[in-house]
Amino acid sequence: MDNIKQTAVVAMSGGVDSSVAALLLQQQGYRVIGLTGKMINTDSARAVVQNATRVAEKLGIEHYICDVTELFKDKVIRYFENSYKFGYTPNPCIMCNEFIKWGFLFDYAINQLSADVFATGHYADIRYIEGFYKLYPAKDEHKDQLYFLYRLSQKQLSKTFFPLYHYDKEEVKKIAFENDLPPKDSKESQDICFIQKPVTAKKYLIDKFGAQKGDFIDILTGKKWGEHQGCYQYTIGQRKGIGIAAPYPLYVIDIDAEKNIVYVGREEDNYKQALRACDLSFSYPLKADEFDAMVKIRYNMTPRKAHIRIINECADVSFYEPVNSVTSGQSCVFYDMNDLHLIGGGIVTR
To answer: Measured on CA atoms in the order 302, 160, 72, 276, is the torsion positive or negative?
Structure first.
């Protein structure tokens, strides 16, 4: 089928990546439609919609805006708050991808706008191999975003296109500059889009939950090191901001939200060789329930070799070498040993 007859709906944020993605698809002959989700009722969210609208106008394409504030509040913001409340560290971007971008917006694009493809500015590559769609790393190794995409299904992958997969970030910025995209006052998206500077995640949570006095306890000796104002303010592996004078650096090793206890210890106490991950999602059907894989337990870590055993809908992950900061609530994502394509992943339950 000629591309000119195909409709590509692009999830547009008004930023550089999604704007260039729309431009590239237009240059390739697609009929491009912009689609923007309004996530929250703030000035910054309104600016996102305005910037996306201005990019769409510049490109001369149709542009639709969907108010997803209630869904976003339920699936992303409430999840973020409850995770910290119960002693977990969340991945809000992964939930946003699952329920908003490849949830509501994807369905709207396919069912309401008759999209042939749904495109975003993510840096990833989709290939159809041996009867399945598989996610591969993009050219820019510093912008690998497979970690955030592991919950996408075969149906979603079959309709998804990432125009930026063979560009690096500097090349994308150059294309944007040469084509005067996006508006000059648009900014790069933040890790937590619903918390805007100067507000920090910590201040946001303090405003939400208030002071809750609890103890810092040594993970090995049971010694009380001091007091804190709420275990929700801490995450596993944290060193800075503990505020305890000790003869050696202290790290957050564990959190007991029910008792409001933050367990601390030395750096060596922060390493583990195994974890369990549940709420699993796989990009394609597995051939075996036991295999070796490269594994990430947070986005910005180098993948580490591990042995995976799928048992009772959870994954027991045993690393060949200990890893630090195994954190409940974070995603544990599996990559193929040979070519690092995405296999799947789950939520760390420790």
So the answer is: negative
Residue-wise pLDDT for 79-99, tens only, equals 999 999 999 999 999 999 999
What is the reported pLDDT for 186?
Answer: 59
- Using CA atoms, how far apart are residues 32 and 27, in angstroms rounded to an integer? 10
What Å distances lie between residue 339 and 160, 295, 303, 336, CA to CA? 21, 13, 12, 6
HSE at residue 267, side-chain half, CA atoms within 13 A, is 5
Report the pLDDT value the prediction gives residue 1, as an integer from 0 to 100.
44
Does residue 278 have an active-site annotation?
Answer: no
CA distances from 191 to 92, 157, 198, 247, 322 (A): 8, 24, 14, 34, 27
**Dihedral angle sign, alpha carbons of residues 37, 101, 195, 208:** positive
Report the alpha-carbon distance of residue 86 to residue 255 in Å, rounded. 9
Query: Distance (Å, rounded) from C-alpha 274 to C-alpha 119?
Result: 37
Residue 308: strand, helix, or coil: strand
Q: Are 37 and 103 in contact (CB under 8 A)?
A: no
Q: How many CB atoms lie within 10 A of CB 247?
A: 5
**Is-catalytic flag, 96?**
yes
User: What is the pTM for the complete model shown?
Assistant: 0.92
Question: What is the reported pLDDT for 257?
Answer: 96
**Catalytic member of 93, 96, 231, 332:** 96
CB 346 within 8 A of CB 280: yes
Residue 21, φ and ψ in degrees, nearest 5: -60, -45
Token pair of 155 as six digits: 């149906």
Ranking 187-196, 229-238, 245-254, 332-341 by mean pLDDT, the lowest is: 187-196
Q: 207: how many CB neighbours lie within 10 A of its CB?
A: 9
Exactly one of 93, 193, 231, 332 is catalytic; name it: 193
pLDDT tens column, 321-342:
999 999 999 999 999 999 999 9
Over its C-alpha atoms, the chain yields an Rg (Å, rounded) of: 22
